[in-house]
Amino acid sequence: MHERRPLALDRIQAFLFDLDGTLIESDDRWVATLATHLGSLARFSRRHDAESLARTLVMAIETPTNYAMSALEHLGIGSSFFGLADRLRRARGLATREVSETVRGSEALLETLATRFKLAVVTTRARPEAYAFLEGSGLERFFPVVITRQDVLRMKPHPEPVRTAAGMLQVAPEACAMVGDTAADMRAARRAGALAIGVLSGFGRRHELERAGADLILDYAQDLLGLPEWDGQKG
Predict the structure, then answer these.
(1) Backbone φ, ψ for residue 218 (5° rounding)
(2) Using an 8 Å Cβ cutoff, are 198 and 22 in contact?
(3) Rounded CA gap, 209 and 182, in Å?
């Protein structure tokens, strides 16, 4: 666990969760591969090493790729690309619908949170994928609201997905905490007025999450239950 700002649980009514790297296991396979190829190029940069250059490139590709897939899906032709999308995700170390594992402690965390808070998923995954992961892991019972890239016009880091989830949960965005592993999650939360909680179990690194405005950074989402503020709210 890392340095943090105070968590005002008394104003939080809902927790919003990203999927990849937050509730579903992922790794940095693509970053590692790119870093190997970018090793010589990084020697000419005073500000970046090979890994940071690779991470920057992957993050730059991520949003345009998601928007391209979203456009195809809104046109009704995205299903033709599911096989290609899964191959790209496997190359990156991301889970596919056939191969996925929940981040440790996720179910216990959600069991506890569900007794006092409203819960939602906010993901850039497509709707069929998101529901397949939730159903396959048994986590779907915790989430009456699931916001995917097919449910919004603008994706994270834009605040629309966070605001949409809050609206469907019938709470103000300011009464929500967004939990995710990327800078895009943190920026979407801050721009919506929600609390931004970063986790280090996925793609993002601490300095990236801090730079994006994270209010709190944890190793795993389950570490929420170990916070002093949470202990004070029990009972």
Answers:
(1) -125, 160
(2) no
(3) 7
Of 191, 196, 154, 193, nearest to 63 (Cα)? 154
The pair phi, psi for residue 80, each rounded to 5°, is -70, -15
Residues 150-206 have pLDDT tens digits of: 899 888 999 999 999 999 999 999 999 999 999 999 999 999 999 999 999 988 889
Cα dihedral: 192, 73, 202, 226 (round 10): 50
Q: Identify the residue whose tokens are 């103000």.
A: 172
* Residue 63 vs residues 43, 69, 105, 124, 153: alpha-carbon distances, Å: 27, 10, 29, 9, 13
For the record, the structure tokens of 78 come out as: 């995205």
Q: Are 159 and 16 spatial neighbours (Cβ–Cβ below 8 Å)?
A: no
Torsion angle in degrees (nearest 10) through CA of 208, 209, 213, 217: -150
Distance in angstroms (rounded) separating the CA atoms of residues 49 and 38: 9
- Whole-angstrom Cα Rg for the chain: 17
pTM over the 0.85 mark: no
Cα distance between residue 142 and residue 114, in whole Å: 7
Residues forming beta bridges with residue 195, ordered by sequence position: 177
φ, ψ (nearest 5 deg) of residue 228: -60, -35
Q: Tens of pLDDT along 203-220?
A: 888 988 999 999 999 999
Contact by Cβ (8 Å): 206, 186: no
